[in-house]
UniProtKB/TrEMBL annotation:
Residue ranges annotated for the PAS domain, each copy included: 36-82, 162-198
Species assigned in the record: Lamprobacter modestohalophilus
Keyword presence, Aminoacyl-tRNA synthetase: no
Gene Ontology molecular functions: ATP binding; phosphorelay response regulator activity; protein histidine kinase activity; protein kinase activator activity
NCBIfam families per record: nifL_nitrog, sensory_box
InterPro entries noted in UniProt: BphY/WalK/GraS-like, HATPase_C_sf, HATPase_dom, His_kinase_dom, N_fixation_neg-reg_NifL, PAC, PAS, PAS-assoc_C
Domain Histidine kinase: 322-534
Domain PAC: 107-161
Membrane topology of this protein: Multi-pass membrane protein
Cross-referenced CDD domains: HATPase, PAS
Keywords: ATP-binding, Kinase, Membrane, Nucleotide-binding, Transferase, Transmembrane, Transmembrane helix, Two-component regulatory system
SMART domains given in the database record: HATPase_c, PAC, PAS
EC number per UniProt: 2.7.13.3
Top-level taxonomy: Bacteria, Pseudomonadati, Pseudomonadota, Gammaproteobacteria, Chromatiales
Protein name: histidine kinase
Length: 537
């Protein structure tokens, strides 16, 4: 190669540009120099990067062997030609304008162009073009270095496409998915998570799911799966409920958590000597509300039958208890009269034996009547969610509420602690109170009939507030309302006056209380407080 340049310089063609002759003389150099330009030339010539030198108008003065290989042109085909021989119309004109503005200001331009080889094949070229200044500081040449980055572009595009596919799959999945770091911060979520965020009216779903798992399943997903120490433990199909504003009940989710260990991305890890990668938690929450509602519907039908049976037995007990109460008064009178005659205070000597017989017969009848009272059904104590029990009763009362034209405002607490209770008895408690509120809305005679029910967690108890738009209780009757057989309604038909007393008795059995709020005057507000007084069976 060096001999060829020397021969060329000895007898250059007449039309050889002077710039070419100058560049070739610089390349040839003087062999007596310690580091002759020839060494630089050989280095550039054998460099694996495509290198070209052009004049200020972009005419090619020199191209190395790598440039020949990359472009597909022989050196003789390149020298004297403009660099635009490699240009492709796939590169926007604005890129070329920016390139020329930069290098004409004597600055280096770095960027990417779409070039084409001799055969027309296009490739992606990463270019660095630097101005070479003469002794007066003017641009004498342009040094260009570029390499084919088509393969890197294809790999980056494939990676982006793969990422897009994964995101599309995640967004199409009918399951809430969220990837968390060890501190519980969200790294990635999908469309179902965003939908749940909207359903919760802007409340972040993750804290609610974590709180539900802590309250209802007894563990925190972060602390269990990606703890600060140890490997943690995955979990699968743990069902929890979330209260969604404006919904028809809670939303149920089957939650699973899987630990994911990411690779260390530091330079040291290149040869497998890096540190252990960060731990991540992939949290999945599948909406199983439809299945729960189907089960709940079947459960409600069963409850409807049980409550109907219980109501029948309760009605019989109320009627018999009322009859026993009514028999008690004349029986007491008979006892008193019998005692008077027995002590000689009466004037009818023969009446004493008769009174004694009447008393004995009445007492026997009373015992028979009391013996006819059906026994209360024994029920086991279990952990219950008060929100669910109230919701069951509202579902059972739906027809009656619709028939009466009552608007129900149901506002359950998002998370309630479970309490130990007898489920059927608590349902009867709430049913008696809701029946009482339903009767009150009819007694008021208002066109707008409303029933407001809410729950909240206290320090060691659960409070249920039942508020109606009825006439309310006069201050003197607030305590009388809980007396047996007291009826304050105008419409007394079918009423035995035992609803509120029974509700109070059930609340007392569960270590709680019922009171009528004396501060509320726009109807009646009853506050029920329940605790964990009963031991779990």
């Amino acid at each position: 190669m060096q001999n060829a340049i020397s021969a060329f310089l000895r007898e250059p063609p007449d039309d050889t540009p002077p710039e070419v002759l100058t560049a070739l003389r610089l390349m040839a150099g003087n062999a007596s120099e310690p580091l002759p330009p020839r060494l630089y030339f050989e280095t550039v010539e054998q460099a694996p990067v495509a290198i070209s030198i052009t004049d200020p108008t972009a005419s090619i003065l020199y191209a190395n062997a790598a440039f020949e290989h990359l472009s597909g042109y022989l050196r003789d085909e390149l020298l004297g030609k403009n660099q635009s021989i490699l240009s492709s119309n796939a590169t926007p004109d604005s890129i070329y304008r920016q390139l020329w503005r930069t290098i004409q200001r004597k600055k280096t331009w770095t960027g990417t162009l779409v070039n084409q080889r001799k055969g027309g094949d296009e490739y992606l070229a990463e270019l660095v073009i630097s101005p070479v200044l003469d002794s007066s500081g003017e641009i004498a040449y342009f040094l260009g270095m570029h390499r084919d980055v088509t393969r890197e572009h294809e790999l980056a595009t494939a990676l982006r496409q793969q990422k897009t596919r994964i995101e599309n799959v995640l967004d199409a999945a009918p399951t809430v998915m969220v990837l968390l770091d060890a501190e519980g911060e969200i790294i990635l979520d999908n469309m179902e998570y965003k939908k749940l965020f909207g359903d919760l009216r802007g409340r972040e779903p993750l804290p609610l799911i974590r709180a539900a798992l802590r309250q209802q399943a007894g563990f925190d997903p972060i602390e269990r799966t990606v703890p600060a120490t140890g490997d943690g433990e995955d979990f699968k199909n743990v069902e929890v409920s979330l209260e969604v504003p404006g919904g028809l009940g809670p939303r149920w989710f089957s939650c699973s958590g899987t630990r994911i260990s990411e690779q260390d991305g530091s330079a040291r890890s290149y040869f497998g000597r890096g540190n252990r990668g960060d731990a991540r938690l992939l949290l999945l929450a599948t909406d199983v509300t439809a299945r729960h509602r189907e089960i709940e519907r079947a459960h409600l039908e069963h409850l409807r039958a049980r409550i109907a049976e219980q109501r029948l037995a309760q009605g019989m007990r109320e009627a018999l208890a009322a009859a026993s109460y009514q028999i008690q008064t004349p029986l007491n009178l008979l006892r008193a009269a019998s005692a008077m005659f027995a002590n000689g205070a009466g004037t009818l000597e023969g009446f004493a034996p008769t009174l004694a017989q009447i008393t004995e017969t009445s007492e026997q009848a009373l015992k028979t009547l009391q013996a006819a009272l059906p026994d209360a059904i024994a029920e086991a104590c279990v952990s219950v969610n008060v929100n669910e029990l109230v919701r069951h009763v509202l579902a059972l009362e739906t027809d009656a509420l619709l028939a009466a034209g009552v608007t129900v405002d149901w506002r359950p607490a998002h998370v309630l602690p479970e309490i130990t209770a007898r489920q059927t008895e608590l349902r009867s408690l709430f049913k008696n109170l809701i029946d009482n509120a339903l009767q009150a809305t009819g007694e008021a005679g208002r066109s707008q009939r409303e029933l407001h029910i809410s729950t909240r967690a206290l320090d060691d108890a659960v409070e249920v507030c039942i508020q109606d738009s009825g006439p309310g209780f006069p201050s003197g009757d607030r305590y009388k309302a809980f007396e047996p057989f007291y009826i304050g309604w105008r419409n007394r038909r079918g009423r035995a006056g035992m609803g509120l007393p029974l509700a109070q008795e059930l609340a007392n059995q569960h270590g709680g209380s019922i009171e009528i709020d004396p501060e509320y005057n726009d109807g009646c507000r009853i506050l029920v407080t329940l605790t964990n007084a009963l031991p779990r069976d």
